[in-house]
Write a structure and sequence with these properties.
The complex is a heterotetramer, with 2 copies of chain A and 2 copies of chain B.
Chain A lengths: L5 H23 L6 H11 L4 H9 L4 H31 L13
Helix pairs in contact in A: 2-4, 3-4
Chain B lengths: L2 H22 L3 H23 L9 H21 L5 H27 L5 H28 L13 H21 L4 H19 L7 H23 L2 H24 L4 H5 L2 H10 L12 H9 L3 E6 L1 H6 L2 H13 L3 E6 L9 H8 L7 E3 H4 L8 E5 L8 H4 L18 E6 L19 E5 L2 H16 L1
Helix pairs in contact in B: 1-2, 1-9, 4-5, 4-8, 5-6, 5-7, 5-8, 6-7, 8-9, 12-18, 14-18
The chains are: A mainly alpha, B alpha/beta.
Bound molecules: NADP nicotinamide-adenine-dinucleotide phosphate (2 copies).
């Protein structure tokens, strides 16, 4: 497996620290009204693990690895596809009085 | 520009879009744009990974097949899921996410061990630990919420020792693996202990505390994705994972604060014990039970009515009926507001989503700080299947488990109408003095049924 | 001069983008009461250019370079030292009624 | 851990501290901690750079000498500077910061050209451009604020063409250098054009618009530090620079919004022209001039007084006198509040700093949104050297340059006392109808003098 240089590691830590700070600030700014769709959105985002799943599967290594990887892809894509769709469904329900009542979706 | 570089830039745009997606989710006006930005970011993440050249991926057959299966399962699940099932569905999703992270970690290990540099191995172990415990923990949370298993806390003597013990085994084997990546047996110990700890973590937690736990598990799922990013030296994974991790953390803190409880209290099932203690105390007192007709009479001359929905509205699916009542009352010139307590219902924003589903305009929904000053002016506060969030003990009884939790001051309204099925307690298992106040009228019955009857009565009067 | 790899560059861009987002969120959260000390603080922080000045001076290269570098160090350290001191002076003036009136500083 | 690694971790902690320092600056309670975190971060940045081993720095004599000179200049400057001089001192600081960035860029170029890879050269050119324009721009801003040169906008025909032309020359030479790093002449063209553009940028801007320009220059100084970070492949520089860049941007946007103006309007001196136009319009109208004794009589029975400080209070240094008046009034049982308009004075937070200096408790200072609902209940609004921020034209006169700017609604108070030296206009150069209202009394004189006299009168009455 590729050796990471110390500086790669520290750079990743920089990115991690910044992104965590940013996450804390951004989430704190989310209106309470939207906490349910927010949960659903971050749930969908956590399917980013699909990137790792694709790599492990696609490299065509041992059979076990490919199988585990494919299973991981399936899990993550259920998450990704379903997550964003549900968030959209939830958000479509939010509207103001003046926006009319035409409803798409379910 | 070579494939490698193109990939980097695609990932960069993806990361920026993930950030924007959460930012835009902050306001209703921009929230749908936020969801689209998130989806686009995910598409870019996948496209960037599959870009021919860099990673030299080959097994496209497997990939396409696996994604298709995912889509076939995911899409119908998203389409047919009822809105009340959002907590379950989120739990199940976390289970999938955790499993994916765990499996990728295991596969990486099996493929490359023992040639894994120490830092990478440490990240890999963290990824598996977090991934697998999220998997079983979320699965159990799902089962409890879906009532496949009992929602009661499963409590037995020595449970804290068992779960701590399992966690320690998992951590020790993770450390051992990091130092000696060659010993495959440590992998299996780590996996077993992580899977076990996930179960032990969630077992003692009651069904109603699940939302907090789900938020914590969301945080773990994010952190395991970030750990995967450290393993693969992939910034996009790190960023998305860190955003998720902080989101889960903040949401669980908000919930704990609004319930006036500590993390530890939620995790170690403190509420379960309270139920037994508080449930049987107190002498029998009398309440005033009223009929639907009484309720209509009281509402006829009201000029300002504040509805306080709670978990019971969700159970009864009474959101459409209450919206109808609001419409009827407003047609009579009465102002109607909805008071939304931060932990009303069983998940953050629960009431908002249900009322939005029933087409209630979101500017009619007022948060605690804004609605409390209005109660003294309200002719009637309708408590619709809410209980703990209107319990005055939170203000007055120092020894109550609710003491200190901010509540909706319905008792300050001229009259209060409480609609529930019985004198049963709510989630906290605590008696509610509100029901015995002079200006409180109890209307017993299912929330939806009572609402529908009141509306029917009004329509008769109006006609 | 050292060649930067494409991936270094992109990593730096990642960091820049994250830090900018974070900056925007954080500054938006600063109470208006504190805009003057905030200006003074960010002014002090901009003296981070001292890092570059130190490198260019300390490597002991050509005479011109060292001289320009030393000038840059002087400029940045005026900024850094002065900036944080003034911010402190400004902040010491902010207090609530109940905090008493003992005053340090000037 | 080798020196290289140690340095990386020191920088990482530094970066986190810079972030925390700005976060903590958000609240008064934590703001001093924020400043300390920032200072510590800077110390770590310097220490990390000087760590022996990695960069192999040697010319320590030069370094120590240069820092000492910096300290000898910087410390006294920080200690003796009066609080009113914060804008000037900030401008001067930006000039130093810009110069440092520019010089480092030039030195790097001279040392390494033509062996500079393209991307690095691009960043280097950006660093010099931004650094040098910040230098001259800030220096001129300083000179105007310090009134070393006239504060009037310097306007001549074709000035926009001249400054745009200079900017284009600077950008073209930057691009040329990036492609051909070998041609030293391009360096000198770039330097000259950047230095020139900085001057042209600030020349047409009036003294009073300087704060907005200073915020923009702050943003540029930050971006040039970030560019230096790209050159040196140093994440700490990039992070600190980006934080600064966004800070300047947000502050200037806030100022523009509160003045209801666009960036372009500020930068191209729109306000300068307005002065000439609006100043001489309108027929002569009558105002009611009152004496200090009248003012005291009016204040004697007041129960709620709201003071609206403005730029005139800063000019007259009347903050201590007004604080004394507040103390006297409060001793008589009258409630006193201060209404702080976001752009009162000449820099963001100007009034807050001055009143804090005079020991006014910061919970007595109310922001626009919170104080406006109070005016109808106020017996007296004292407008102390403020003008534009209380001009009702902003609410009513569609053709006024102030139209749409949120103002303090002093005209809704029972009576208004305006204290200023003459009928002269304020910064925007616009007549103020407030002065002619029936419930307005004008008390002409220097703000400090009038305040001191009123206080003396009160003391006489009380005695
Ligand atoms: N929102 C969150 O994120 C979250 C997360 C975790 C925990 N919690 C906790 O959940 C609780 C929420 O408070 P809450 O006031 O909304 O609910 P609650 O205190 O749990 O009370 C709900 C009430 O609704 C009544 N009810 C149930 N089904 C009904 C039906 N079909 N028709 C009419 N009434 C019905 C029940 O009484 P009957 O049985 O007599 O009808 C019950 O007393 C808080 O204690 C909070 O801490 C919330
Ligand atoms: N705060 C910021 O960040 C910022 C930045 C840029 C621009 N601005 C602009 O600055 C203006 C600020 O409004 P403002 O109401 O505070 O001030 P203003 O509109 O500039 O008016 C100040 C008034 O104070 C009076 N004055 C001056 N010296 C005085 C003294 N010694 N004693 C008594 N009165 C004195 C002047 O009238 P006399 O000459 O008759 O005494 C003048 O009308 C706004 O237009 C704003 O847009 C603010």
């Amino acid at each position: 497996m590729h050796e990471l240089s110390q500086s790669d590691i520290v750079e990743n830590l920089f990115v991690f620290v910044l992104a965590s700070f940013l996450g804390l600030e951004l989430i704190r700014g989310v209106s309470r009204l939207l906490h349910t769709p927010l949960m659903s959105l971050t749930n969908a985002i956590s399917s980013i693990a699909i990137v790792g799943s694709l790599l492990i599967t696609g490299r065509g290594m041992s059979h076990t690895t490919t199988l585990l990887g494919a299973l991981a892809i399936t899990c993550s894509s259920i998450n990704a596809i379903g997550g964003f769709m549900i968030t959209e469904r939830i958000l479509r329900m939010f509207k103001r009085k003046d926006e009319g009542t035409a409803r798409g979706g379910h | 520009m070579s494939a490698l570089n193109a990939q980097h830039y695609v990932y960069l745009v993806g990361a920026a879009l993930f950030v924007l997606s959460i930012k835009w989710m902050g306001q209703v006006r921009t929230s749908r744009k936020g969801n689209w930005a998130g989806s686009l970011a995910m598409v870019l993440a996948v496209a960037g990974t599959l870009l021919p050249g860099h990673y030299g991926l080959s097994a496209y057959g497997w990939i396409v097949g696996a994604v298709l299966i995912g889509a076939v399962i995911g899409i119908p699940m998203a389409l047919i899921m009822p809105m009340t099932a959002v907590p379950q569905r989120t739990a199940l999703s976390h289970a999938f996410g955790g499993l994916a992270a765990g499996l990728v970690g295991t596969a990486e290990y099996l493929e490359f061990a023992p040639n894994i540099p120490r830092f990478v191995m440490g990240a890999l172990a963290a990824e598996m630990l977090l991934g697998y415990l999220t998997f079983t923990g979320s699965l159990l949370a799902f089962a409890k919420l879906q009532e496949i298993v009992s929602t009661k806390p499963i409590i037995y003597p020595g449970r804290n020792a068992v779960s701590m013990g399992t966690l320690i085994v998992a951590i020790v084997s993770a450390i051992y693996m990091t130092i000696n990546p060659g010993h495959e047996v440590a992998l299996y110990v780590l996996m077993a202990a992580s899977l076990g700890f996930g179960l032990f973590l969630v077992m003692p937690i009651g069904g109603a505390d699940m939302p907090t736990v789900i938020a914590i598990l969301n945080s773990y799922a994010g952190l395991s994705a970030a750990a995967m990013g450290f393993v693969l030296n992939n910034k996009l994974l790190i960023i998305a994972g860190a955003l998720d991790g902080s989101s889960g953390l903040i949401l669980s803190i908000i919930m704990c604060k609004a319930m006036n409880r500590s993390f530890a209290n939620v995790l170690f099932g403190g509420m379960g014990q309270t139920i037994a203690k508080a449930g049987d105390a107190g002498p029998a007192r009398e309440v005033k039970a009223y009929t639907v007709e009484d309720a209509v009479t009281m509402l006829e001359d009201a000029r300002l009515v504040i509805v306080v929905p709670g978990y019971g509205m969700a159970v009864a699916q009474a959101q459409h009926a209450v919206k109808e009542l609001a419409t009827v009352l407003m047609a009579r010139g009465c102002d109607v507001k909805f008071a939304i307590h931060p932990v009303a219902g069983r998940m953050p924003g629960h009431m908002n989503v249900l009322l939005a589903e029933a087409d209630v305009s979101y500017d009619q929904l007022l948060e605690l700080e804004h609605v409390n000053p209005l109660f003294p002016e309200a002719d009637m506060a309708i408590v619709l299947g809410a209980n703990d969030v209107v319990n005055p003990a939170a203000r007055t009884k120092v020894d109550s488990p609710l003491y200190g939790m901010p509540i909706l001051d319905v008792d300050k309204a001229r009259s209060v109408m409480v609609i529930k099925r019985s004198m049963n307690t709510g989630f906290a298992g605590i008696d509610n003095d509100l029901f015995y106040l002079d200006n409180t009228m109890m209307v017993f019955g299912d929330a939806k049924k009572v609402m529908t009857e009141i509306v029917a009565d009004f329509k008769r009067i109006n006609a």
